[in-house]
Amino acid sequence: MGEKVEQARREAREKNGDFVALRALEKAQEAARRRGERPTSYGGKRKKAERTEITPLGDEVFTPGINWDREDLGTGARPSRRDPHALSEILAAFVKDSGWEESVSGGELKARWTEIIGEANARHCVIESFKDGKLVLNTSSSSWQAQMTALSAVLKEKINEKLGADVVTEIAVYTRWK
């Protein structure tokens, strides 16, 4: 052990008088080191956080081995539930657990707006707001308002196809160009 650690222990013993407890701890640590055990960063049992379940990639594989009585272990060359998952699945579960689904959908809608409705339409129709599935559009003139209102059912279908089912449930079109 380092010299500073030993000095700190000596000072703690002199100050607190915990000779017996500290010596027992040192003996237990030394015995664990001799057995090949390594210290961990967390000594207690962790509670499982409430999380969205990610669909396992493979079958549940249990091959008897050293810890054959533990149900959470699976080994072998076949896919198992312990295999890594795609980053997209992990991020989707994180977004859902955080309650950010609508914010992410709204951001993606704004980022892909020109791609979704086309460049000519995007010059005359912009997103004013998106909340609770209601998309409010702002057009440059009443003729563009009439055209976008007529296309709103097709537009809603196209947005939901590109971004996921039921992202947009309602579309309102106004002429409030700034």
What do these coordinates show?
The chain is mostly helical and 178 residues long. The chain folds into three domains: 1-46, no CATH class; 49-98, no CATH class; 100-174, GMP Synthetase, Chain A, domain 3. 48% of the residues lie in helices and 10% in strands. The chain has eight helices and three strands. It has helices at residues 3-16, 19-34, 87-98, 101-111, 113-117, 119-124, 142-150, 152-163; strands spanning 125-131, 134-139, 170-174. The protein has a three-stranded mixed β-sheet. β1 and β2 form a beta hairpin. It is elongated and about 90 Å long. The model has no long low-confidence stretch (mean pLDDT 78).
Radius of gyration: 30 Å
Major sheet: size, sense and barrel closure?
3 strands, mixed
CATH class of the largest domain: Alpha Beta
Count of runs of 4 or more consecutive helical residues: 8
List how many beta strands DSSP finds. Answer: 3
Q: What structural category arises from helix and sheet content?
A: mainly alpha
Enter the CATH topology name of the largest domain: GMP Synthetase, Chain A, domain 3
Question: Which runs of at least 5 residues are low in confidence (pLDDT < 50)?
Answer: none
Q: Share of helix among residues?
A: 40-55%
| Broad shape | elongated
Strand residue percentage: 5-15%
Query: What is the domain total for the residues?
Result: 3
Return the average pLDDT rounded to an integer: 78
Query: Could you spell the SSE succession in H and E letters?
Result: HHHHHHEEHHE
CATH architecture of the largest domain: 2-Layer Sandwich
Largest sheet: spatial strand order: 1-2-3
Termini Cα gap:
71 Å
